[in-house]
């Protein structure tokens, strides 16, 4: 089960916690000046982009969605950048290094599910919403309650990810650059605030694109050098890897990482549906001009991610072959679970020398900067647009809403730094599963049913959504990770690691039950508005807001 926990931390999408690419304590390494210089160059370049974006960010639309002027290709790269996190790069390659063939199954397995979900949602989301997914959910339902629920779900997910990203940043920079943990956390916090505060979505998108291109380049070079070493023959690659790995031919046999079918199913559902409920992923579909570009975004993102995970598979086997067989690296590369998942970094040194090692180290850290910027913007928009402008201060001007958004960015930056320092020595692994479970159990059911189910009412959405959110939190607390490993009890009350299977079921049943039994005049009116919503979801044309609640 410990390996299964490592898997979810390493294969979840870019929202994936980089903190858990390096589980456990790390030892401060000698200062890597090449990595620091390259990182400074990257930061200077992205700050220049932020200044450029600030000159073009004048309205609310510019700030939240880059004015809808991002192309499908650019948005696809940015979405892929969210998924291609430091944990994906370092962690999945380490999983392949440890388990061989199983790494391919799990690194590519979730790709089968998420495009289906996003193709199902992307077009209607773009046509119905403006800035956040709560715009869609509240289209024909009561704005106040639905936006409060959506904002709470978004903020909980964002908070969990920010904590883990900050801890991951500190540990990565401590390990790779040899700098102090607290300095790293403060540095990431300050940079993320600058990106979002001044550049908004335009700067965040381009930082993500640049990071994705650099990571794809670095991973491609490593994979090319590995394949060059074996004469571009996968047969030679696998043969040499089997000869170098302690488990021999066993690394080419699938199975063994997931033994409990309930946990495996719950994990799969959490990853699949959780991805479609992550606020910073959904927000990206509002940055393109129309539904056609939204579909292109999914197409390009799927291609880039599929290519990237094939590269990590080659890198993992290359690490077995070139790193695992090298006595100089064996001790460092051997500590894979609960230690330093640095097989890819050692391979970078083996194929490209210290300069390329510095480049990969800088890119690995830069991935965190890009992800936290997207998370911060999603959290700020939930507070300013959903809560302030549509619940507490209806009729607020664009300038007032933007002021609240930027104040929220500052607050989130301070909170992220404080929590990142506070959680330095804590086990934060459970936050990943909890964040995905909440996104899958609260956000996703409401988004999907508000688009496709004509009988949905505010009462059903509210009760079912809150039930899903609370069930996910309670079952995670009562499960093995928190109840036993963190709180120290002998046995868990809830026997499974991941609650998504149960919390998603509770959410859908709750929404169905309390919507179908809602015989109020308000419920009937909301059902009648479904036709107007359907027309707009197909064409992008229609009334600006379906419900005047």
UniProtKB/TrEMBL annotation:
The keyword Ion transport applies. One of its GO terms (cellular component) is plasma membrane. It is a multi-pass membrane protein. It comes from the Bacteria. GO terms for molecular function: acetate transmembrane transporter activity; glycolate transmembrane transporter activity; symporter activity. The chain crosses the membrane at residues 34-54, 75-97, 103-122, 148-167, 179-197, 209-227, 262-286, 298-323, 356-383, 404-423, 429-453, 465-486, 498-515. Residues 1-18 form the signal peptide. Belongs to the sodium:solute symporter (SSF) (TC 2.A.21) family. HAMAP family: Acet_symport_ActP (MF_01426). This is Cation/acetate symporter ActP. The gene is actP.
């Amino acid at each position: 089960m410990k390996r299964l926990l490592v898997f979810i931390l390493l294969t979840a999408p870019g929202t994936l916690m980089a903190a858990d690419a390096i589980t456990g304590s790390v030892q401060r390494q000698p200062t890597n000046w090449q990595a620091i210089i390259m990182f400074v160059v990257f930061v200077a370049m992205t700050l220049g982009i932020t200044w450029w974006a600030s000159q073009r960010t004048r309205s609310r639309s510019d700030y939240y969605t880059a004015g809808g002027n991002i192309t499908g290709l650019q948005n696809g790269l940015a979405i892929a950048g969210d998924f291609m996190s430091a944990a994906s790069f370092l962690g999945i390659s380490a999983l392949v290094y440890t388990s061989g063939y199983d790494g391919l199954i799990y690194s590519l397995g979730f790709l089968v599910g998420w495009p289906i979900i996003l193709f199902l949602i992307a077009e209607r989301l773009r046509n119905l919403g403006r800035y956040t997914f709560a715009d869609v959910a509240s289209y024909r339902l009561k704005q106040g309650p639905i936006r409060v629920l959506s904002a709470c779900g978004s903020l909980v997910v964002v908070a969990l990810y920010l904590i883990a990203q900050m801890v991951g940043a500190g540990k990565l920079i401590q390990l790779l650059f040899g700098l102090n943990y607290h300095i790293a956390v403060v540095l990431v916090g300050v940079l993320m605030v600058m990106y979002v505060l001044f550049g908004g979505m335009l700067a965040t998108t381009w930082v993500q694109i640049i990071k994705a291109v650099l990571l794809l380049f670095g991973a491609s070079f490593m994979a090319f050098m590995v394949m060059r070493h074996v004469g571009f023959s996968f047969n030679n690659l696998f043969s040499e890897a089997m000869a170098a790995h302690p488990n021999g031919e066993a690394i080419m046999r699938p199975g063994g990482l997931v033994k409990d079918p309930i946990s495996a199913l719950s994990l799969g559902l959490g990853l699949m549906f959780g991805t479609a409920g992550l606020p910073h992923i959904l927000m990206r579909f509002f940055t393109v001009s129309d539904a056609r570009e939204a579909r292109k975004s999914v197409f390009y993102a799927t291609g880039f991610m599929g290519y990237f995970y094939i590269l990590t598979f080659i890198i993992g086997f290359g690490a077995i072959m070139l790193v695992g067989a090298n006595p100089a690296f064996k001790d460092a590369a051997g500590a894979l679970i609960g230690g330093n998942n640095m097989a890819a970094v050692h391979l970078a040194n083996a194929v490209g020398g210290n300069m390329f090692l510095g480049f990969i180290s800088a890119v690995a850290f830069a991935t965190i900067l890009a992800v936290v910027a997207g998370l911060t913007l999603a959290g700020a928009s939930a507070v300013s647009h959903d809560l302030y402008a549509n619940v507490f201060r209806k009729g607020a001007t664009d300038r007032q809403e933007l002021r609240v958004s930027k104040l929220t960015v500052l607050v989130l930056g301070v909170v992220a730094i404080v929590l990142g320092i506070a959680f330095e020595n804590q086990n934060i692994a459970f936050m990943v599963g909890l964040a995905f479970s909440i996104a899958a159990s609260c956000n996703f059911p409401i988004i999907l049913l508000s688009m496709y189910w004509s009988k949905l009412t505010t009462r059903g959405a509210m009760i079912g959504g809150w039930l899903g959110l609370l069930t996910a939190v309670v079952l995670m607390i009562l499960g093995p990770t928190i109840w036993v490993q963190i709180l120290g009890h002998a046995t868990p009350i809830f026997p499974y690691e991941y609650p998504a299977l149960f919390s998603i079921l509770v959410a859908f049943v709750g929404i169905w039950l309390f919507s179908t039994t809602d015989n109020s005049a308000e419920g009937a009116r909301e059902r009648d508005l479904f036709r107007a919503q359907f027309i707009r979801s197909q064409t992008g044309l229609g009334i600006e807001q379906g419900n005047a609640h």
